[in-house]
Amino acid sequence: MSKELTSAESMGSIVKRDESSMDWATPKQVLEQVNLIQEIMKLVMKEGEHYGVIPGFKSKKPSLLKPGAEKLILTFKLVPVLEMEEKDVWHPTIKGHKEYVSNVKLYTRSGLYLGCGIGSCSTMENKYRFQKAEVEVTDLPVPNQYWGLRGKDPEGALNLLGGKGFLPHKLDDGRWVIAVVQKDKVENTSPADDYNTCRKISKKRGLIDAVLTVTGASDIFTQDIEDIAENLTKQTIVRDAPVTPAPTQKNTLVEDKEIPISMEQEYGDVELLSPPDDKVWITDLQNKLINKLCDEGRMSVVDFRAYIEKQYALLSTKDLTTEQASAVIKYLLSLKPKKDEEKK
């Protein structure tokens, strides 16, 4: 275990708080400070760079990001002093996991102590503990309903993507599409690769907490939502869902199976069809993906029907559960499209 002091460590004795010089702030002064922060937010800060609202969370308050916290430090002429503690973290098989705890104190330029913030980061957090799972990206966009449902019903939201083994994936152009996990995540055997990153994240979290506390901006901003969003990787199967079928038209691949008419209905307000025996039938998105993969030539319609009859004793995809449909999709993805075979 070790400790270190950084940033303005040389301030020494002048960082002692002078209680006699502290006066109570008047309501007018408090209001002026709030107005100042709001003006800085409006005129100086940019959404997505200094602050941002993370989709899928109930809180409508924007999350203060590190560049935004630095702007408020500049505005109020604050001086941060960082104390960081390093702790060893136990793991049953892998040595070297660490946790970094940051205590960030804020002072005026004359050395008056104003307050502090706490932040921590560990290599045992999901995004550092595990290596990223191997996924195959589809071109199906993530339904809009997923983001609103994710916070209050993670299982139902996941089922909109196709169930266990499916997750949202952000493309380089900013679009979110559905991806299929080809290989489950595995433990990272080299925690030391993330030491520097964890130190910086710990410092960032402590700095943001300190700025929110000292400036009284917690009613304007929230904190760490972006970190929560990155760590949301829960993958389970929904067991109950509302029975609300949408307007439909005939599917060209599967007889008697219906899919939404419009793209808006398909991606903007997807509903799950839940049978009475507590199983969850194939979703419209799963059915569409199966159709697409068969259209690519991975399997003919005749071979596909023979496959599900042999595997599940079923004659139509409408009788598949979401779990069975997920397995079918993964199998189809393992087959090469006909056009790729033709190139050879």
Summarize the structure.
The chain has 12 helices and 13 strands. The protein has helices at residues 27-43, 66-75, 126-129, 144-150, 154-161, 195-215, 225-231, 263-268, 284-295, 301-312, 322-334, 338-343; strands spanning 2-6, 51-52, 63-64, 78-88, 98-108, 113-122, 130-131, 134-141, 166-170, 176-183, 186-187, 248-250, 258-260.
In the CATH hierarchy, the third-tier topology of the largest domain is known as: Enolase-like, domain 1
**How big a fraction of the residues is strand?**
15-25%
Q: CATH architecture of the largest domain, please?
A: 2-Layer Sandwich
- Rg, alpha carbons: 26 Å
Helix share of residues?
25-40%
The largest sheet is: 4 strands, antiparallel
Q: Enumerate the spans where pLDDT stays under 50 for 5 or more consecutive residues.
A: 4-21, 228-278
What structural class do you assign from the helix and strand content?
alpha+beta
Number of domains: 3
Mean pLDDT: 74
SSE run: EHEEHEEEHEEHHEEEHHEEHHHHH
Could you explain how this protein is built, in words?
With 344 residues, this protein is α+β, with helices and mostly antiparallel strands. The chain folds into three domains: 2-128 and 187-231, Enolase-like, domain 1 (2-Layer Sandwich), CATH 3.30.390; 133-184; 248-343, no CATH class. Helices cover 36% and strands 21% of the residues. It has helices at residues 27-43, 66-75, 126-129, 144-150, 154-161, 195-215, 225-231, 263-268, 284-295, 301-312, 322-334, 338-343; strands spanning 2-6, 51-52, 63-64, 78-88, 98-108, 113-122, 130-131, 134-141, 166-170, 176-183, 186-187, 248-250, 258-260. The strands form five sheets. The chain has a four-stranded antiparallel beta sheet with strand order 1-4-5-6. β9 and β10 form a beta hairpin. α2 (66-75) crosses α6 and α4 (144-150) packs antiparallel against α5 (154-161). The protein is elongated and about 80 Å long. The model is unreliable at 4-21 and 228-278 (pLDDT under 50).
